[in-house]
Amino acid sequence: MTNSPMPRWKVFLSQYLRWSSTVTQAFALSIITFCVIFPLCCHRLLYSYYFIKSMYLDSMSEVVLRESLDRGQEALHFWQSSSTAATSRFNNFTQHPELLVTVVTARRKEARDYHYLLQVMLQLSNIVGSCGEQKCAEVLVCDVESGPQENQDAKVLESHFRVVRRSPQEQQSIQERINTFEKEKRDYVFCLRRGWELVKPKNIVVLEDDALPRNDFFIVIKDLLSRRFALHTLYIKLYHPERLQRYWNPEPYRILEWVGLGLVGATALLLSFPYWNPCSFSFTLSATHLLFFTLYFMTAAELLGRHYLLEVRRISPQLYAVSPATECCTPAMLFPGNASLRVAEYLDSSFCYKGHAKDIVLYQMARTVPGQRSHSVEPNLISHIGAYSSVRANPSRPKLL
Ligand SMILES: CC(=O)N[C@H]1[C@@H](OP(=O)(O)OP(=O)(O)OC[C@H]2O[C@@H](n3ccc(=O)[nH]c3=O)[C@H](O)[C@@H]2O)O[C@H](CO)[C@H](O)[C@@H]1O
Question: Transmembrane region positions (predicted)?
Fold first, then answer.
């Protein structure tokens, strides 16, 4: 009896589905990584593609709101009970400091109990001594509230920090009916200029009142200012929203970083296989295998979340990455030299409205005015604690995403 020949598709499958076939190995590795290991490890990571929103978002948002509320109440207690003598060093300004930190603050109706400003000032007072013998910076509170009700948090801080406000004449210029975003921009310009006039600092950081500095804030800024690029930049963004940090966002330098990461990971893995190969993979350093592992690492990095990879850079201030500025948001901005004056002038000549707020104007300025460059630093130097916006409508219980 003669054996009938195996159909061609069976021959094809049996060849490719043998474990010794690299196609089978690549397929199995991808399935195990992306469909088993990653979903198990990353389903609670907020900025990962595997995050299960329906299961965790509400509870995580509630925890963050509760923690912020507690921190706010602690900060209120701290500032109300601490003596003026203990904080007098913040009130004694030196002229021409290396760095001035101006905190722009307005009354926050909806988030009154969270005391964002008090939280930020408590953290600043804790870390401002982290630069050795000297203070890292002078700190100024710029209260832009012009309504009939006062900014109570700024009032609490008056005996501890220098708090500047518009004069009654200046108040009048802001009383006319302007939209919220134009008002926000004018407030920012006022604070930029007032900080400069007061102490003529060598560099200025402007923080919004919901930008909580991280512990290494001043150390990283010192390192940034010592780098050559800082001399020629209009501003350096110290924060970009975590949800926009993905590779799959249209930022050209990120694509380069992404491909670079894939190539380095793939090369290292293929070179190390002869010494470490628990599953007897038959991959070698060939062009096809290099391409597969480059794509494998790129996919892994994106699905895990670029945000978590950036966190590794916190090991040292020198590892913080500087790249061309991204578009959104201005909660923490470093203006080296007298760049703050140029920015104030430019903002002054622009008009803001919904969809064209001051962050967009600044981004356009750096792109369109010849000779002006702007940068972003990653990972973030501040945490954005402002769950409730003071310029936009808020949901009753804001969510993290
Ligand atoms: C985390 C984030 O994405 N924040 C951005 C978002 O702010 P948000 O929508 O989060 O608004 P917000 O409440 O953080 O206010 C931004 C800043 O404006 C100040 N303020 C508010 C009201 C006012 O009349 N005058 C005034 O100066 C306020 O004290 C704060 O320092 O959009 C703004 C532009 O619109 C900026 O780009 C913010 O960086």
Answer: 26-47, 255-276, 282-304
Domain spanning 60-244+312-384: which CATH class is it, in words? alpha beta
- For atom 33 of ligand 1, the residue with the nearest CA is 329
Asked whether 237 and 332 are in contact (CB, 8 A), the reply is yes
Specify the residue for token string 């004018």. Answer: 186
Interval between CA 32 and ligand 1 midpoint (Å): 44
Substitution site in 179, 390, 399 for ligand 1 pocket (most atoms within 8 Å of beta carbon):
390
pLDDT band, residue 174 (cuts 50/70/90):
confident
Structural domain spans, the chain = 60-244+312-384
The CB of 102 under 6 Å from ligand 1? The reply is: no
State whether the beta carbon of 242 lies less than 6 angstroms from ligand 1.
Answer: no
Query: 329: left (phi > 0), else alpha (psi -120 to 50), else beta?
Result: left
Give the ligand 1 atom nearest the CA of 191. Answer: 27
Taking only the tens place, the pLDDT of each residue in 209-239 is 999 999 999 999 999 999 999 999 999 999 9
Out of 391, 399, 401, mutate this one to test ligand 1's pocket (max ligand atoms within 8 Å of CB): namely 391
Name which of 234, 213, 51, 25 is nearest 128 in CA terms: 213
Distance CA 266, CA 139 (A): 47
Distance CA 321, CA 326 (A): 13
Residue 84: partners with Cβ closer than 8 Å, 6 or more residues away: 159, 160
